[in-house]
Write a structure and sequence with these properties.
mainly alpha, Arc Repressor Mutant, subunit A
Length: 141
């Protein structure tokens, strides 16, 4: 499976916000500059993240966006599941009616199991875990 740009950039957005979690609200323009992602694209990505209560907006002169929950409570799997259209590796995994072979296909269950394993792994990784990995790499350990 190839993750969409939306989920990859959404994860980068959320990780950037986690890095600045204690700095107060941040502007999308700053995230865009740090991450090399257009502000317009971040504005599109942030909408479902706000609706799902991952991000909170703050109005006013010191406004911007902040994580609605601590980085320890937000998983990569949750972000990806929200931003991906489908979690499947093959179209028949979600909709067996697509293929007449689905009821007897020996590979369909493999695609379902592989997709579940990937999302289980992503669900086990929090933004705080990624921040720790980033600090370890930066220190050269």
């Amino acid at each position: 499976m190839k993750l969409s740009t939306k989920s990859r950039y959404g994860t980068r957005l959320m990780l950037d916000m986690a890095q600045h979690y204690h700095d107060g609200p941040i502007h999308l323009a700053n995230v865009a500059k740090r991450q090399g992602i257009s502000v317009k694209y971040l504005e599109q990505i942030i909408i479902p993240l706000k609706k799902a209560n991952y991000i909170r907006s703050v109005r006013g002169p010191k406004g911007g966006h902040t994580l609605a929950r601590p980085p320890e409570e937000i998983t990569v799997g949750g972000i990806v599941a929200l931003l991906e259209d489908s979690a499947s590796l093959a179209a028949c995994s979600d909709n067996p009616m697509i293929c007449e072979r689905s009821p007897v296909c020996p590979t369909r269950s493999i695609w379902q199991e592989a997709a579940q394993a990937m999302f289980d792994k992503l669900q086990s990784i929090t933004l705080a875990d990624l921040l720790s990995r980033t600090k370890i790499k930066a220190s050269g350990a």
